[in-house]
Request: fold
Amino acid sequence: MTTATPTVGAGVQPPAPLTRAARVRKRLNSRTATLVSIVLALLWTIPTFGLFVSSFRPEDQIKTTGWWTFFRDPQFTLQNYQDVLFSTGSSGQLASYFINSLAITIPSVLFPIAFASLAAYALAWINFKGRDWLYIGIFALQIVPLQMALVPLLRFFSTGVTVGGVQILPAWDLVDEQKFAQVWFAHTCFALPFAVYLLHNFISQLPGDLMEAARVDGATHPKIFRTIVLPLITPALAAIGIFQFLWVWNDLLVALIFAGGSDETAPLTVRLAELAGTRGNEWQRLTAGAFVSIVVPLLVFLSLQRYFVRGLLAGSVKG
Amino acid sequence: MEFDFAAEQPKFLMLLYGLIAFVAVVGGLLLLLDVVPTWFARRREAQLVAAAAGGGPVPRRRKQREGLFAFFFLLPTLLFLAIGLVVPAIRTTLLSFMDARSTDWVGLDNYGWMFAEDSIFRVLINTLIWVLLVPLVASAFGLIYAVLVDKARFESAAKSLIFLPMAISFVGAAIIWRFIYAFRGDGQEQIGLLNQIVVSLGGEPKQWLLDSPLNTFLLIVIMVWIQAGFAMVVLSAAIKAIPADIIEAARLDGTTPWQMFWRITMPSIRPALIVVVVTISIATLKVFDIVRTATNGNYDTNVIATEMYNQAFRYGENGQGSALAVFLFVLVLPLVIYQIRNLRKQREG
Reply:
């Protein structure tokens, strides 16, 4: 299409007959925009990159020189990871906390999603009185900051429920790793309003003819839910799953209150916050520790980003 | 190197119990809902057959089945919400009118204390600074970046990098930023990036996180760093959703990029922008982890959520802690109502 003569290029852009100068300016503009956006993106990544580099530097190096000296004088070690993951006692033992994080996260993701998809289906496709009000009520519960629920919920676990001096539900009396159940419970409660809302957005947009046809064929609601709705909303389930995963894995407050601080139950975030507080000058442990804690969400995030973004948009824009 | 794997076994066992409970509850519920109606249907069929054979009256079809299904589908959600959110929220509100040990009513004392005590007033001011700055700066940056990166080369890679901090926990972020704000005495080599830059420009190194009110602003930077990606992704999607013919028409009319942004882009993405600002505001009001990890609320950096935690769980002041939580609720309330009204308008329109 292009020949050696530079003037021919004018025919390439039919809609806007630009002068040559304007074209050059436009190209320059978009080139500047590209450049600026790349520079900003790199700038945004520097803090994380700094941590990553630091985590491979020897202790004395971390404490005396900045991480950027690594490129002048590269000294590489895996000792930090070794220490922080496997040494026992107060210095790290993150492997143990890593398992706690897993044990907390998996059920805390599964339960709310299952319950919320059931509820969202009922709110969208089963006709019953007061349906809209119930939906609005659940939606509105998103307002309640979880801070408001902490003290009473903790009492619910530790002393049970008494009404007028009569014990209705006993205290849970959980010890050690059994405390995971408390955390699962708390996370499930706090996740439900948003999960119901997001899944309702998806489920209510499924074609009504499909449901109608199934009803005519004599399918009951549980059958429709299992065989028609669930397969169709898997992208939405993935989106809310990633959300909930990131939220639970990264949460500090709920874990701090319901899991306690011991290595039996506390997740990585609690341990890291503790390391940052009491052993604030053990930089080498903080670097490796922080990286251990962010590597899993980072992998999940990068591999499933598409679903995450889709869910984000469905939850916040489409409404 | 003395990691003992056997000691971790109870945790896996507990996890297994959790998963078994999950399968039992969810599977059991579905099974129940499957089996019971079938049984009823069979019985009805039998009745119908008997009625047809005997010439008796045909039993009327009952209609409340739907409601029953809905009840069981909603049961777990409603149960958890009631125990975990509704009842606790009501109780917290009640507790906020009681004393530290929740035995006597004290009226509005806890609320009076919030505004009378200097240190708590400081907390409220800090929260105000947070909630004014974070949504503003994060959305502005997100918007500028979304416009800038639109149709640029390497668009998706650049966006991923900006978006990445969303996956990092607030605790992790606070630690990452330690390496920016770290301080070493004058004369020593700096290990914090910010001080290194200051020193190489010929300045004095500073203890960034000890200086009030500067430290609050520096913590806000961390939050902006995390939230800007969210703003960028949502706004970028909104920009891409602007119909191409509108843009084309404007271009034919010879609009400058500047006019294009204010007259076309901004009005088109207004709803998305509002959602972003409101969402970030709500997240900011509840911010806890960053402050707790970076400064533990010292040096005048406390915000409502951290102070609430301190009052209720460290000092045993349940009344005052609850009052702070209720105050947080009151702050979030108008934002959410605004958002709901907005969503309703969007749906109808």
In short: The CA atoms of residues 70 and 178 of chain B lie 51 Å apart. The mean pLDDT of chain B is 82. The two ends of chain B are 63 Å apart (CA to CA). Chain B has two domains: 5-62, 109-168+211-348.
